[in-house]
Please model this.
Amino acid sequence: SREIARDRHRLKAMGITHILNAAEGERNSVNTGEQFYSRCQIQYYGITAEDIPSFDLSQHFYSSADVIESILRKPESAPSSPQYFTLRFSKRL
Model:
């Protein structure tokens, strides 16, 4: 939810080390950003997109997969015991 996306302490307590925001921007989005998460050492990656059903997010699939793959390949940035979370940061939830 938007509430969780903006709760840095809760994300850190959950063991979240990286955020890939697929709804970055100012319109119909979750506008947090790299600076917002840097205070708690969470790495941030954003895709400028609107959080609406008609937005074609598939155009960002390969670049997002590249980001995830690069995180998992770096032992120093990957979680020590990786757990996979799917968090849907949406205003509609």
User: Anything to note?
Assistant: The chain has four helices and two strands. The radius of gyration is 13 Å. The chain has one domain: 2-73. The CA atoms of residues 24 and 72 lie 22 Å apart.
